[in-house]
Design goal:
Layout lengths: L1 E2 H8 L2 E4 L4 E2 L2 E2 L10 E2 L13 H8 L2 E5 L12 E5 L2 H16 L2 E6 L4 H13 L4 E3 L7 H9 L7 E5 L7 H9 L3 E4 L7 H4 L2 H13 L6 E5 L15 E6 L6 E8 L5 E7 L2 E7 L4 H16 L4 H10 L8 E4 L5 E5 L5 H13 L6 E6 L8 H14 L4 E5 L4 H7 L4 E4 L2 H11 L5 E5 L7 H7 L1
Parallel strand pairs: 4-5, 5-6, 6-7, 8-10, 8-11, 9-10, 11-12, 12-13, 13-14, 18-22, 19-20, 19-22, 20-21
Antiparallel strand pairs: 1-3, 2-7, 14-15, 15-16, 17-18
Helix pairs in contact: 1-3, 3-5, 3-6, 4-9, 4-10, 6-8, 11-12, 12-13, 14-15
């Protein structure tokens, strides 16, 4: 329940019209808004939800927030109407108000890669000892994070949020709204360059999470990331390092590579050591495990529970998940997304995993790289050229740059998924390992389904 006075206090809004002075909740979707809820119309790249003010009111009989520049749309509108400068900011303000009223410790995670896996692992670890609230899946933008906060029930001891961005300023907005006590940046790599410009732009954007962590709060530094490590000397927060390659307060030491069954390793915490194993594949996932474990240990999760969580945790759909197809070859489904660093990690892991047959790579475009797209796709082509992968199938417009570096001796370029699938089916045999990876927009999961 939201009282009108609370909404006005949170958003610093101005009343245009009063009909109701209490609301059952907050909604950003005019199609699913509930009875008595307050509508917050968000501006998107291709839509303006102010066009649905009437629809929202007819479903809710509640009220709406409206940007002052669009006040004319409210002339005949019924219900309570609150004017604000920016509706997206008003949504964040409401979320911040709710989070502060909830209390508890807030943990925020961002980074170019691995943030969803790290967050999900930490949620599992912390949830074995405490009451935890979190944003599900990768609902990590302004609407996703705000809606998750507004959905909090009761008084969780910890709120864990993944923060994402594809434009400058978004991490700062989300960090200010969540006001984290503890924060972690997984890594800095080229991603979302259309909105962030270059790798330095990515760094500056992600560092806003550290900048807006509460004074006296705690930040976790990836000692293996050359971009993040220099910020170890942050003076406004307690800072702890974690790393696999470099010396750090929290360490992970690989004890045995278990091939398709993952890895056995030890976690070295200040004062404790844990021997465990994971079914997750790839060094990048070991870094995610260490990141989550470092925070979990710091908030008081017992090492035995951290161990239990690691050993029970399995990979999510489309995130480097292997399965054996009907014809006996193994498909590694990493079709969820791709950027230059995640593509490199996936290819390296493909080469490290045991195979009785040959290795095959099916790769699609890496999106949102802006003016750097050609450069990074050509880099990918050079890396594939130096690799021993004998069969490489490429599909997409931007990945043509990789094909120009590779040539057609080992690689084939397709503009049709059916033709690509037919080509691979003619090449793949029992014992082969096939990696499928590309950006979300490429819908590489359709290839995975066709090859099963």
């Amino acid at each position: 329940m939201w009282l009108l006075d609370e909404v006005l206090k949170a958003t610093k809004g101005e009343l245009l019209r009063v009909e109701k002075e209490a609301f059952t909740g907050i909604s950003t979707d005019s199609r699913t808004i509930g009875d008595g809820e307050l509508f917050v119309p968000i501006m998107g790249k291709t839509f303006d939800a102010h066009m649905f003010l009437l629809d929202a009111y007819e479903r809710s009989n509640g009220g709406t927030i409206c940007e002052k520049e669009r006040e004319a749309l409210c002339v005949t509108l019924k219900g309570t109407i609150i004017l604000v400068e920016d509706a997206s900011q008003a949504l964040l303000d409401l979320a911040q108000y709710k989070l502060r009223a909830t209390g508890g410790t807030c943990i925020a995670i961002t980074g170019s890669n691995g943030k969803t896996t790290t967050k999900e692992m930490l949620v599992d670890m912390a949830g074995r000892a405490f009451a935890v609230h979190f944003n599900e899946k990768n609902y990590n933008n302004i609407i996703g994070v705000s809606s998750s906060i507004l959905a909090i029930k009761g008084k969780p001891e910890f709120c864990i949020f993944e923060l994402g961005t594809n434009n400058k300023g978004e991490i700062g907005q989300l960090a200010r709204a969540t006001d984290p006590d503890i924060s972690l940046i997984t890594n800095i790599n080229p991603s979302h360059l259309e909105g962030l410009g270059d790798i330095d732009g990515v760094l500056e954007e992600k560092l806003d999470l550290f900048r807006f962590t509460k004074d006296g709060g705690t930040i976790f530094i990836n000692a293996d990331d050359p971009y993040i490590l220099p910020h170890y000397k942050d003076r406004g927060h307690a800072a702890f390092t974690y790393g696999i390659e470099n010396n750090a307060a929290f360490r992970l030491v690989v004890e045995e590579n278990l091939g398709w069954e993952g890895a056995a390793f030890s976690l070295h915490f200040p004062g404790d050591r844990v021997h465990t194993k994971t079914s997750l594949l790839g060094r990048h996932n070991l870094s995610n495990i260490l990141a989550a474990s470092s925070i979990a240990y710091s908030i008081g999760v017992k090492p035995s529970l951290i161990k239990e969580s690691i050993e029970a945790f399995s990979s999510y759909a489309m995130r480097f998940r292997p399965f054996i197809a009907g014809k006996g070859y193994t498909i590694v489904d990493d079709s969820y997304n791709a950027n230059p660093s995640s593509m490199e990690w996936a290819i390296k892991t493909l080469l490290e995993l045991p195979a009785t047959g040959k290795r095959i790579a099916i790769l699609g475009d890496m999106k949102e790289l802006g003016s750097k797209s050609s450069h990074y796709h050509r880099e990918l082509g050079r890396m594939l050229l130096e690799s021993p992968i004998p069969v490489i199938a490429l599909i997409g417009e931007e990945i043509k740059e990789a094909f120009r570096e590779l040539g057609n001796e080992r690689s084939q370029l397709f503009d049709d998924k059916d033709r690509l699938v037919d080509f691979i089916k003619g090449k793949a045999e029992k014992g082969d390992v096939i990696l499928v990876k590309g950006s979300r927009a490429s819908r590489m999961e359709e290839i995975v389904e066709a090859l099963k």
